[in-house]
Amino acid sequence: ADERTRSFIVDMFAYPSGDLHMGHAEAFAIGDVIGRYRFQRGDNVLHPIGWDSFGLPAENAAIQRDSRPDEWTYANIETQAASFHRYGVGVDWSRRIHTSDPEYYKWNQWLFNRFFERGLAYRKDGLVNWCPQDQTVLANEQVVNGKCERCGSDVERRSLNQWYFKITEYAQRLLDDMDQIDGGRWPDEILSMQRNWIGRSTGADVRFAVEGRDEPVTVYTTRPDTLYGATFFVVAADAELADELCAPEQREAFEAYRTEVAKLSDIERQTTERPKTGVFLGRHAVNPVNGERMPVWAADYVLAGYGHGAIMAVPAHDQRDLDFALAFDLPVRVVVETGEPDPAESGVATAGEGTLRDSGPLDGLTKDDAIARIIEVLDERGTGEATVNFRLRDWLISRQRYWGTPIPIIHCPSCGLVPVPDEQLPVTLPEMKGAELAP
Questions:
Q1: pLDDT tens profile 207-229
Q2: Burial class (CB in 10 A: 0-12, 13-18, 19+), 414
Q3: By C-alpha distance, which of 306, 299, 315 is closest to 223?
Q4: Given this model, what pLDDT does residue 399 score?
Q5: What value does the mean pLDDT of the chain take?
Q6: Positive or negative CA dihedral for 420, 159, 141, 433?
Q7: Class of residue 288 by CB neighbours under 10 A (exposed 0-12, middle 13-18, buried 19+)
Q8: Strand ranges (DSSP E) for 277-423?
Q9: Residues near 239 by Cβ (< 8 Å), separated by ≥ 6?
Q10: Cα 346 vs. chain centroid, distance in angstroms?
Q11: Please, what's the largest Cα pairwise distance for the chain?
C-alpha cells in the first residue's frame, strides 16, 4: 500500500467561453505551485482538472450559430485544454472532468434525490428577476441598474414556480460551526460577511387585524417594544398580500406602481440613497396594543422574501420608516426617550438605547426589559410571540433554461412529484439545436 501522505488539490473549474486568458493563468498558478510543492515533498498528490461546462452563455451562442450547445462547449474545452498543455500546468490529465458529461451530472441528480427524500428540495412560487430576452431567471448580482447584465434588456419581477434547496434548515448550524474557524483561523472580515449574510435576529411575530381580511397579517420585528410608536403599515409592493389588500379605488394606482417596482432588483430597493416611494392601498390595520387604525401602504423598500413581507412602521426609531413618513406626511411618534432631537424635525431616527415613554405598561422600562414585557403582553392576548428570524433565504436552484443538469423528477398527474429511480439515472438532455432553443 502507498503510505505517502495524500494531498488532494482542486482548482476552480474553468468556464469554456473561449480560450484561456490571464485570469486563468493567475488562478491556476496557485494550485499548480501547491501541487508541485507537495509532490516534491513526497506526497501522493491527486490534482484533477475540470470544466464548469453548463450555463446559459453556451446556449445563447448555440442560438446565434444555429448549432448545439454541446458542440460549442466541447470545442472550447479542447481549445482551452491545448492552452493548458502549452502553459504546462501540473495536473493529472487522466482525471479530467466536464460537468456537462452525463457521467458527471448523474451524481448531481443522485444528490438531488437525496435532498428531495429528506424534504430539503422542494417547489414553491417565488418572486424572481426575469429577463424577457434570455427567457431565464437572474440572480440579483446579474441585474445592473434594472437591466440584464448579459443582454441589456429591462428585467421584470415575476412570480414563478421554482425548485429550492432548504438551506434555511441549517442557518443556526452554519452560525455555530463558524466558531471552528474563528480566532484567527479565517479572516475576520469574511466571517463578519458570512454572519451578516445569515443574519440571525431575535424579536417577535406580531399579528395585526386588517380591514377587509378575515385572517390577521403577521409582521416580524426586532423591536416589539416600539409597537406604541407604529403609525402606519407597509407591505412589499410585489407581495401577493399587497394585491389582496388593495381596495378597488386604489387598484389603478397600485398596478402602475407595482409595474415600476418590478424593474428594480432587491439590491436597488434596499439602498438608502433611493428616495422612498409607495402607494396607499385604501385599507387600515389595527395596532394590537392600542387599537389605533394605521394606513396600509405598498412600498418598494420592504421585500416580500424577508420576514412575512410586511412591517409595522415606527418612523421615529427607524430611518427608512422615517424617510417614508416624511415623504408622505405620515405621523412620527417618539416612544423611546434618548435625549436626542425630535426625528420629525431633525430627519434622523433615534434607534438606539433609551427609556420607553407613551407606551402604556412599558413606560419607564429600558429596551431589553420593555421587549420582554411586550412579548408577555402579546402572548397573553394571543396577538404575538417571541421569534428567531434569519435573513438567509432558501436557495433557488432551477435557473437554467436548457443547458444545465436536468432535475430528475417525474411530474405525475395522479402521484404528484416522483423522483426518477437511482438505477435509471442519469436523466439526459435531449439533443437540440439553436433554432429549437430560441426563446
A1: 999 998 999 999 999 999 999 99
A2: exposed
A3: 315
A4: 67
A5: 93
A6: positive
A7: buried
A8: 278-286, 293-299, 310-313, 336-337, 355-356, 384-390, 395-396, 409-412, 416-419
A9: 127, 304, 309, 310
A10: 34
A11: 80
Which 8-state DSSP code applies to residue 226?
Answer: G
What 3-state class would DSSP assign to 253? Answer: helix
Q: What pairing do the DSSP bridges indicate for beta strands 121-131 and 96-98?
A: unpaired
If you count DSSP H runs as helices and E runs as strands, how many of each does the chain have, helices first? 13, 21
Q: State the Cα–Cα distance between residues 21 and 18, nearest whole angstrom.
A: 9
Strand 336-337 and strand 355-356: the pairing is: antiparallel
User: What is the phi/psi pair of residue 398, to 5°?
Assistant: -95, 70
Residue 6 C-alpha cell reads as: 495524500
- Strand 293-299 and strand 278-286: the pairing is antiparallel
SS (H, E, C) 347-366: CCCCCCCCEECCCHHHCCCE
User: Would you say how long the chain is, in residues?
Assistant: 439
- Distance separating the N- and C-terminal Cα atoms of the chain: 56
Residues 45, 7: contact at Cβ < 8 Å? Answer: yes
* pLDDT at residue 269 greater than cutoff 80: no
Burial 54-87 (b: 16+ CB within 10 A, else e): bbbbbbbbbbeeebbbbebbbebbeebbebbeee
Cell of 240: 401577493
CA gap 376, 386 in Å, rounded? 9
Residue 141 has pLDDT above 80, yes or no: no
Spatial separation of the C-alpha atoms in residues 10 and 31, rounded to whole Å: 7
Asked if residue 278 lies in contact with residue 324, where contact means CB atoms within 8 angstroms, the answer is yes
Q: Report whether pLDDT(182) > 90.
A: no
**Beta 96-98 vs 49-51: how paired, if at all?**
parallel
Of residues 99, 86, 84, the one with CA closest to residue 28 = 84
